[in-house]
Amino acid sequence: MLTSVRSLAAASVFALSAALAAPAMAQDEDGGIGVEVSANVAMVSEYRFRGVDLSGGEFAIQGGVDVGLPAGFYIGTWASSLDEQTVGYGSTELDVYGGWAGEFGNVSTDVGVIMYIYPDAGAGDFDYVEFYGSVGVGLGPADVTLGVAYAPDQDSLGGTDNFYLYADAGIGIPGTPVSLSGHVGYTDGFLTFTNDGEAIDWSLGAAVAVPGTPLELGVAYIGVEGDPLIDPAGTFTDDAVVFTLSASI
Which interval of the chain is the signal sequence (predicted)? Predict the structure, then answer.
């Protein structure tokens, strides 16, 4: 399942199906519902957040821990290295989130809240809160997810808000360790690099799970469009091919 948390915060869609998937609830041997902890780590050739490069075109180290709780609730944290000079957020992003996920037949739902924290960003307000929700449908080896995120007015967003709408699609090729994915998102608000506060990001990716290991290799072509871009030199917003090596336990 492509989770809304990872669609909101991860570098590329192709990594979602394995290393960055949300935890499922664990079932105790006595039939009671328990708690499941999972962890993930990844190296990416660039950290792309909604199409925008936040690592200065350099490698980024990422990872997180998720805890599945009874009755479908979950909490988790995820972090990535950043380029200190690219967008002024410091060298680290730390995301802390919690929510509820449920499945109804082949339909999945996910709602929650995420806090984006930049612990060494320097003077000023940079941390912000965002609420999210998504609905997904599984169709055999394929799944489609529609999601929305809203960050209300905050000082760190220039006293305004931000709205994000996205769609993810993924399919595993039967009989192979290969999966394909696609993503498109629309941003309206502060979190764009455009003069009019609107942007469209997209990606197409493929991933292969390494048999007998927790490793996955992925590649995605990622872009973001705005009219006009504040970033005329393309420092943050040029289309890019992003590679990922990830693992989860």
Answer: 1-26
Question: CB neighbours of 22 closer than 8 A, spacing ≥ 6?
Answer: 1, 3, 5, 6, 66, 68, 74, 76, 101, 110
Local structure of residue 4 (DSSP, 8 states): H
Distance CA 52, CA 161 (A): 18
Take residue 236 and report the two structure tokens written for it: 């943050």
CA angle 239, 45, 76 (to 5 degrees): 105
Query: Which CATH number is 4-25+35-248's, of 3.40.50.620, 3.40.1650.10, 2.70.20.10, 2.40.160.40?
Result: 2.40.160.40
CB-count burial class (<10 Å; 0-12, 13-18, 19+) for 5: buried
